[in-house]
Structure of 3-phosphoshikimate 1-carboxyvinyltransferase:
Amino acid sequence: MVRKSEVNGEVKAPPSKSYTHRALFAGALSRRARIYSPLISDDTLATAFSCKKSGSIFLRKGDAAIVGGLRKFGGYYNCMNSGTTLRILISLAAALGDHSILDGDESLRNRPNKELCEAVKKLGAEVIGGEEFKAPLKIRGRIKAGEVEISGKSSQFVTSLLFALPLVGDSVVRVRDLKSKPYVDVTLHVLEESNVKVEVEGNEYHVYDSEYKLREFQVPPDFSSISYLIAAGVVGGKVSIKNVVDSRQGDKVIVDLVREMGGRVEWRNDEIVAEKSELEGIEFDASNNPDLVPTIAVLAAVAKGKTRIYNAEHLRLKETDRITTICENLRRLGVDVKCGEGEIVVEGKGFREFKGVVDSFGDHRIAMAFSVLGLLGEVRILKAECVSVSYPKFFQDLKKLGADVNAG
Ligand SMILES: O=C(O)C1=C[C@@H](OP(=O)(O)O)[C@@H](O)[C@H](O)C1
Ligand SMILES: C=C(OP(=O)(O)O)C(=O)O
């Protein structure tokens, strides 16, 4: 439960989930790598345990994780709630594997992997799964180098192939309609650091036979997580986020988006400061930044006027169908909202009290985004513990800033 309160103070930016997954996989595929400031959360532990199960070491040394020496995939993998872990494993298990079963929790078992599994089959492995290749998936045999075309309805399909193909030989991946493109840029960044050669020509990715040689990697902060802290600042007082280093994450655009809404946000050197401001509605194209949608949707409820979030079809394929869960929860708090297939339109009425019970449906981003509205009234969040998926210290940090946060 988050109750009416003012936030004021500073917190350290939490580490990036997307970079941590990639650095752990790339490090595990290398001889021995030291990953500095990895995010330790449910999702990234799913990746770490998958690597460990496949023969990689996984040691903690101070603020670093040491990984390396992964030999071969095989047996049962529980990817828990993590789409990134499952998707990257699909191609890796088919490149270095022998009879793997990839599974996850109820939410992950509901997320389709069709286009990726079909590409992996085309490259020579056998994949058996549920309708639309939902988990559990059985993977047998191995992929060979080759050329494939794939839909980019999830960028994780592309990331998966880019991670695995260098292990089997020179290949080409042709991508149609790529959504969430900045996440592929994050993948390319980590592959670059790992001595893996990929050349990009338009929508074609030329992958070269390479050996993973990651030695060290400093995980940068997570701009999707930072978005909730910025939102708390503009809604509830003044928040300073420390240790903000730049990286290739698309979600850093949150600073510009909140400014466009009229929010006072400054990013100077390694600090972002967000201060309470009157907000107004905007038009937001969600193609590249799906994970910012819950944040923008709750800010839209506090803003004056209409906010239209569009090109958001891919939000239906996340931990929950986020178009539905965002709309349902905004309505529970009395917000005027309309939802289309890939669109959310919010009619904001400016600062007011938001009171009610919100169901996160176990989706971390829904829990974190809606907590922010509690600062203006009283919002009880069901299954709020799911924040452990990407930002385990979220409620601790909110409390540290002065928010009235209680269990229950
Ligand atoms: O590769 C990644 O780290 C991610 C890619 C995005 O998913 P899609 O590419 O499926 O949109 C994003 O929503 C997810 O939180 C993390
Ligand atoms: C969709 C997300 O992650 P994943 O796909 O890894 O489950 C997310 O963190 O919002």
Observations:
- The CA atoms of residues 92 and 408 lie 41 Å apart.
